[in-house]
Amino acid sequence: MITTITASTLEQWLDDSGELALFDVREHGQFGEGHLFFAASLPYSRLEPEAAKLAPNPSVRVVVYDAGEGVAQRAARRLRQLGYSAVHVLAGGAQAWAAAGYTLFQGVNLPSKTFGEWVETRRATPHLSADELARRQAAGDPLIVLDGRPFEEYRQMSIPGSICCPNGELGVRVDALVADRATTIVINCAGRTRSIIGAQTLIDLGIANRVLALENGTQGWMLADRPLEHGQQRRYPDALHADNARVRAAERLAARAGAAWIGARDIRQWRQKNHTVFLLDVRTAEEFASGSLPGARHAPGGQLQQATDQYLGVRNAKVVLFDNDGVRAPVTASWLRQLGHQAFVLKGGLAQGLADGVSLPRPQPAGVPAWPTVSARELAGELDRGQPVEILDLRASQHYRDGHIPGSRWSIRPLLDRLPAAGPAKIVLLAEDAALAAWAAADIPAPLQARVYLLAGGFAAWRDGGLPVAVTPDAPADAERIDYLFFTHDRHAGNKDAARQYLAWEQGLWDRLHARERAVFKPLPGE
Q1: How large is the average pLDDT for residues 70-91?
Q2: What pTM was computed for the model?
């Protein structure tokens, strides 16, 4: 049964020690314009493939909300159909939470972003400005700039001369990159969080070199009117370096933060007690692809710290981390503990986990409804003959702008129930993949469903078939693009006003927190 709860009840649940999955089921742009601090984004348009990743235990207590437009009720019913047994809807949605006197926050990855600001203030993480870095580079000072973002982000834009080394890899790659203790290490990211956390990671591991965070990252560099590089390939070496001293340092750091080492027996006991357990492999994507533990998800350590809410959708869940070197998992666990999560390290890492048979059942994806399909060539022929066909493109709005089938219309799953009953004889849906289109088709009003077809192979089949493609830089209009968060994206396109707005937002997060929200962060003992 789906029940409705008040903001007051949700407030109580956030204060208790029970597991809770709090999901904002609006689209990404809507979520980013104002949401609850502890909410994870679960857009209704991607509910089926994402729900089990964020909340793998179907008996967990779930609360969903929207802005009062009815999407939360639809999402709740769908979660019930997927097997979630304790689904609740926040009455009045985000507005009711604000009316109760609580703050709605813009942006994404709120807990992690706020945590970075908290760390810098509490730990006095040393930093330098873009101008100071440029001056020292020009003077030939012994320094190295390490970019703490994933390689894909690094390639988009980077500080001249920098080398990609994601934060989660710093502890096991830095020695191969920096052999001289006299070399100053500068950590940067696109903004602030990963610069701060990466620099503080090396400091906490006792690196002999001086370590600094680049203030405001690539955005600060751009705001200082300095050119960025694009498409660079410089990256960390493949070889790991994790000597006993580094492993011991990582273990001390994790233990200091309150992380414990657990084994297969602990995991089995937690599951018997119906706890939510996340089993996360914090190594690189290449290492994960070469083999991991059954049921484990890939969550590279640096990104897990940066965007925790994209991996962990359940508060008070058990989070088990592992690696194959003894450094990456303990360091990540130390940060997650400080972020307020119940993080643990798997004894012996990957090898011991395989030996002990550590595994979790992999959440089964939702069954994909069967719908008839039409090929790109068949559809093109129908259009040429003037047959009444409505083509609804459910891909990201930016992808639609960049190229779509002429005459098609951009739409998104939350809007499909509004289609008029007197529609065309045929409705064709396409999405990023066929499953997303199939799940969305079920939201079309029942009288129209007999007319629904999926485009086989999606837009790629149309484009690759040499069929005409339309480009509309201004359509859909900005006001329609509920899937796109302009607030965070425009700063990467050289928009200085957007960059300044973003940095001011980030630095002002802590002051906007409620006492409950501040209390989640756990400082290292002795601080």
Answers
A1: 97
A2: 0.96
